[in-house]
Amino acid sequence: MIKLSDNDIRIIKETYKTASKFNDYKTLIKLRSKILEVTEIKSVHKSDKDFISIVLKDYNYYTQHM
Fold it and tell me: Which of 9, 28, 40, 51 makes an SS bond possible with 46, Cβ 3.0 to 4.6 Å?
């Protein structure tokens, strides 16, 4: 999570909310791919929505406990 900035998380959160609201699966797939690329996470066995939600929760947890 340390590879993501506050601005990155803000953009992810806004994009995630909008894509989820409109069931825009193409955007969710692209968002997940970009997160995986930036964070260098190798493998995830969750849906796109679940994965992005976990990333947001983990980032919030990490930043609150610094």
Answer: 51
SS3 46: coil
- Residue 42 has, within 13 A of its CA and on its CB side, a CA count of 0
Burial of 8 (0-12, 13-18, 19+ CB in 10 A): middle
Structure confidence at residue 47 (pLDDT): 94
pLDDT score of 1: 61
* pLDDT computed for residue 62 by the predictor: 87
Contact 12, 55 (CB under 8 A): yes
